[in-house]
User: What shape does this take?
Amino acid sequence: MSKWIWYYGDFEVYHSLKLHARRDEFGHNFPPFWRLDDCWHNVRFRKEVELQTPEEITVSAHGVGNVEIDGRRHALDEPLLLTQGKHGIMVHVLNPDGLPCIYVKGKTVVSDETWLVNSYGREWVNAGSNALYLEKSVNPQEFGFSYEEIVPVQKNNVDGGILYDFGRETFAKLYVEIQDGEMDIFYGETKEEALDGRNSYLRAHIFPQSGICSRQELEKAPGRVSQPGQGNLETAYGDLKCGQEIPARAFRYLYVVSAPEQTYCLRAYHEYLPLKRRGSFRCSDEQINKIWDTAAYTFHLNSREFFLDGIKRDRWVWSGDAYQSYLVNRYLFFDADICKRTILALRGKEPVEKHINTIMDYSFYWLMSIYDYYEMTGDTEFVRRIYPKMVSLMDFCLSRLDADGFAAQVGDDWVFVDWAEMDKEGAVCAEQMLLARSLEAMAKCSQVIGQSCDDYDKAFVQLREKINRFFWSEEKGAFIDSFASGKENVTRHANIFALLFGYADAAQQEKIIKNVLQNDAVLQIRTPYFKFYELEAMCLMGNQEKVTQRIQDYWGSMLEAGATTFWEEYTPMLPWDGQLAMYGDKYGKSLCHAWGASPIYLLGRYYMGVRPTQPGYKAFEVMPNAGGLDWFQGTVPVGEGSVFVHMQPEVLEVCADVGGGVLLWKGERFPIKKNEVIRLPR
Amino acid sequence: MSKWIWYYGDFEVYHSLKLHARRDEFGHNFPPFWRLDDCWHNVRFRKEVELQTPEEITVSAHGVGNVEIDGRRHALDEPLLLTQGKHGIMVHVLNPDGLPCIYVKGKTVVSDETWLVNSYGREWVNAGSNALYLEKSVNPQEFGFSYEEIVPVQKNNVDGGILYDFGRETFAKLYVEIQDGEMDIFYGETKEEALDGRNSYLRAHIFPQSGICSRQELEKAPGRVSQPGQGNLETAYGDLKCGQEIPARAFRYLYVVSAPEQTYCLRAYHEYLPLKRRGSFRCSDEQINKIWDTAAYTFHLNSREFFLDGIKRDRWVWSGDAYQSYLVNRYLFFDADICKRTILALRGKEPVEKHINTIMDYSFYWLMSIYDYYEMTGDTEFVRRIYPKMVSLMDFCLSRLDADGFAAQVGDDWVFVDWAEMDKEGAVCAEQMLLARSLEAMAKCSQVIGQSCDDYDKAFVQLREKINRFFWSEEKGAFIDSFASGKENVTRHANIFALLFGYADAAQQEKIIKNVLQNDAVLQIRTPYFKFYELEAMCLMGNQEKVTQRIQDYWGSMLEAGATTFWEEYTPMLPWDGQLAMYGDKYGKSLCHAWGASPIYLLGRYYMGVRPTQPGYKAFEVMPNAGGLDWFQGTVPVGEGSVFVHMQPEVLEVCADVGGGVLLWKGERFPIKKNEVIRLPR
Assistant: This one.
């Protein structure tokens, strides 16, 4: 089957560049503060074929170039006859401002990943492709979103304007047609934001006919678009000729201010990726069900070209945020492609000059994510392809270690860890934990592709020993943030990592639980981002019942506060009007942030209890934990198959449509046979 | 004064990418077979200012982004008030498919090279700019060519078509308007090529109205465009609404084939850079005058965004070709900017993975060109800026030396030297000469910017010794091509370099002249490319009279053969119909090739005898040599000034409008005082 092919990884780099050009707020654009690479623009593709019978092929491309057959050049887009026998085909494509890609259509000669591609550098690599681009008519330079018209659930006159409420947070293109005059549209994740024109993040000022005839553009886009005249908000006049399209942005509310006598037409089209939910969860607690649904919706809105942080702000790809999304994805979409896309986009091209997103920890999460991805998929090929970029990033990290061999800030490196007060003087403990985990990932990935892992293993062992020696405080019974400052400050972060990564021995674990996790004197985690790890650590220690309570308290009260998607940050006790500000902006907080979706991961991983024990779920474990719930039931993807876990008040039922599973229940192991239900007393 | 600014070097990289997408032949496009880099697309600019009085500024950009003043972001294109006192201005621009650049207009706050720019890599560098882009309305993403309508000098009906002869080679856009039907245009550097549709390199097939309304485009372009209805070839109907524009290509002849009853309008617009000729030359030999004029015209046609090889084919930027153009340029335009543009475009970005243009010698010429450029301009700043890229290219070259320490082919490196039969087994002597010269250039450039040159000096001395030891054959009295083959083959190339670079001692020089230069048994140089060096070596040895003869013979007979511009290759004795083919194509030879312009260099450098003895012509030498001519007179640029040399039958007159010169005549030195004529008996 023919498909569009390109230089491997360049589809992601190209769309990352386009995506990152789209953040806007307060009427200005806001480019990221890190290097964005572009695809190679001059590439060549080749393939040796041997034909049993003559065959006609046509080579199409985005870009200019030629087709060389057995050393003779021909034009693109022309039928070319290949005679019986062996032929060498080479396609040269130069696309100065886009993604060079080709589509070869013949009876047996077709463009696919078996073609080799080269950017006139040293290596020929197998071409990249994507299941979204199998048809010649679909252009890989346009990301293949789907569209669906959405309508507001409410409309109110407010202060001379009209406030439309779409019922919940969404991400949608607007199509606007006005007869004359000008008009303003203010977007709001909340009613307050939409009505506060001066402070609303997103707005549009519409002049009549200033847009291009973009209705046609919209209709050309993949996915369903409703016909003119159907389901529109306001149809002042039926004949839509030429209007303006406003690229998709986040909102629940739209506040439209125009001259009183003005007539306009406004339509909204939800822009999304049609990802299939393969995971599910239902339980006896309706609030938790609503939390799961809201988390799934939040996560879907942020799963686009890549895993985004938030759909209003930043709409960027952040490695630390993405790392959690990879994990949530396992229990919801189980979509491998979006993981690969995100990993490739984040890393960009050589040479490495700064940390990923400029953040030291985010380089480490990127390295860790490759092994996690391998664990999920068993995709050795991807590891092989990305491995050289892992090595160069790790080389970069190791080249910056301080005299003690720790990763400390160099230049303007951003040492983030979390939005939390922390002692960041000199080497920071949480960063060393992540570096150690990255070294483990390097060693494991080296093994996966048959490379020696000795150096990474050795570095890991040395670092672990040093972390203990420099950061463990017997007096505090905890890992301290920094030894350089002499303050011996304890925060939850490094200690949570120690539990999660297994970097604390039994005695240390006990102390950490007592002195840190269960110690209210230690600063609470305030972001869903780090709550992810905190609750995971609690689950790992078997405290699911407490985690249930925390989920109810934290996510539940967000819902009670009116959230239709989960937020970037949340402090339960604050009044509503103190919730929305962040980064010094009145509505600066993102109210639809991917890292708010962690309950999906926690419930799948530690309640339904499913995890792979061999790469790609060739073997997997199910170790359910009721977590204090009367009952729950749900599905967890395990590679191509699924496992169904039904925790009833009296009985536990587990069933999978693939083999390889084992149920762990009350200290016993029960092999899960394909399509056979295991029933055990609870 | 405000000007457009961008990431230093990216204007060149961007336009190089666009330029290299334009080669077409036989109806298909032909991208170069080397890596083409793109500009950075996400950059930021900054400047600290201190204002005596408040001032309003406006920041415009190509791309999206914002203006941050004292940490607060504002939209682009809006008037912003700066109060009295100090301010930090930071402009963020992301242009996903173009060149990010900004234009800041205020009373005192203006965008210029004092702004710093950063691509979110490690370094902040001073911004790049170009004198072509001082007006906000002129877009740096469009190269600023000028246009002038040209008309054919002859028109003939041939075989049902019409052959237009423009009198001489040119490079022009066509504007075509047809009423109905289709038509073909075949381009020809010769009549034969235009009339041989199957074999002509360049052609266009015109469908009615298939083009965009590009008349307007043309009129928006910088430079003069004649009004519709004036000076057109065929005006079938006066009302030009919508036609097709064919981007500029090389031709002297156009052969138009259309239906007999068809009416059409065809206009041609010469596309050029308005470079000023600062050098001139006239002498007693009319043929040499015509050669100088034709060389100047040839050279001008190839002096565009960058120095091209040829305007029909390849229309690419080649480092070896460019190296000669830098030298010719000194005696014609003395345009520093086109040198810098070409040097920056050729080198592209890090990391180095292949030789420049994939050719080993072309990496060496690139390195050598920087010192040559410095010698011409005294532009220390440029050396400072390009130096890191010199180092990384030299590192690349040195990393590939063989066990003997010689530069030999690695992988698919192209060892070119010249289109000539040569023994290229193992290390090739000419390449080592160029490597040695590059090490010299590295050492000198290091000194220019105050870096240590010891390593390069040492490597140079070692290499020179080894070249002598391995390649000098006492038996042959010459440098041999290769010692690895055991063939002891002698060609002119390495021996010419030995003379030019001073790598032969007096005894060796004598032998080389006798055994190689004056030895007809050694294969003759057939390309104007290497004739450049051969004739230069002869001049250096004082054989100007012979060179005069060679110029008359070689270039003169090209003119007699009908050349209106000088060719890529020429063999005097061949009949006309054997002259045009090359690379296996019937009209494959380029008939307008920059490397054919060397007489300008030879006459300026070795007849008028002008050369800098201090960088930037702070001091210069004039050592005229009549070369057998009765008289000559001419002007040679020397930095900002010019020197005028008039060799009369009885008297020599020299005058300069700047100081610093010294006349060398019959073994004596005469200081040239500003604006004072020196007259000496010949």
